User: Fold this.
Amino acid sequence: MDAFVLVVGGDAFIATFLKRISDLTALRVEALSQMDEVMPMLDNRLPHLVIVQASFEGSLELCCQIKQQTQVSGIYCILVEDRPQITRERTLWDRQGEMALSCEALEKGADAYLQIAPVRKKSAALVQKEMQLQNRLLVAQIQAGLRKVQNYRQLMRTNDLLSTMALADPLTELNNRRALEWELPRQVQNARTRLRPLSLVILDVDFFKSINDNYGHLVGDRVLQLLSARLLHNLRFQDTLFRYGGEEFVVILSNTDAQEAPMVAHRLRRLIGDQPFSINPTTALNITISLGSSTLNDADDPKGVSLLQRADENLLQAKSDGRNRVVSE
Assistant:
C-alpha cells in the first residue's frame, strides 16, 4: 500500500491518530491543523484519503466541500468521531440516535463515519485489548478506503484510455468522426455565446480510389498518414482536424469568418498539391484535394449539422467543377 493520507484536526488528535496507525509504514501522511489550509492544498495535491476530526470546527462542511470540488478525483473522506459527550454516552442512545449521526456525516460527504470511544477504566489486559480493537478498526477503515480509491482511479484511467481510443482514428491518429460529433456542437455553442465567427472545411483526396487500385491499399493508407501529418503540422493553433471517414477530412476553423475561411482552404489546397508525397525511396505521388467551406449563421442548428451539410455540398460542387479547387459560401 503506497498512498497519501491527509489528517485534519487539532494537534492532540493528529498526534493520537499518527500513533494509532504507526504500523502502516507505507502510508505517506501529512497533517493540517488549520481548516482554511485544506482546500488550497487540495488544488495542488490530491490525497487518497482525508481523515477529519469530527469535533474540529467546520469538519462536516469540509467533507461537503471535498466532494463538491474534487469529486472526479475520488478522494475518500473518513470522519472520526471524538466528541466525549457523544462517545461517552453512546451506550445510552437508542438505535435511531446512532443512525442519525451516521446519516448526517454521510449526507455531508463523508464516505465513512467512525466512532472511537474512550477506553474506560478496566484491567490493563482489557484496556490493551480494547485499544488493539480500536486501532484495528481504524486501520481496516483506512485500508478499505484506499482499496476503493485505488480501484476508482484505475477505473478512471481505463475509461480515459477507452475514451481516447474511441475518439481517435487508428490509422492517422487524428480525431475521428465520433469526436467531431462531440466537438462541433460545443464549438457552435461557444461561438454563439462569445459572439465569434465559426467556419468549417471538408476536404477530400482527389482520385483516391485510383491510388488504391494502382499501388495497393498499403500505399493508400500511407498517403492518408502523410497527408494527415502535413495538414496537422500546418494548421493554425485554433483549428481542429478530424478524419471524417475514408479519404475525407474536416477542419473546424474557430474564430474564422466567411472571408477568412476560403483563404485557409486555398492555403491547405496548395499545401497538399504543391509538394509530392514520398511514399518510399522509389515512389513519390502527386496528390490534390478538393475542399468545401461554410460559415456558421443564425439559422444553423445547435449541433452544427446544417453547417457541415453546406460544407459537404460545396465539396461536391468542387469535385463536380473539376477537382483540386475550393468552393465556399
Observations:
- The chain is about 50% helix and 20% strand.
- The first helix runs from residue 11 to 20.
- The chain has two domains: 3-166, 177-327.
- The first strand starts at residue 3 and ends at 8.
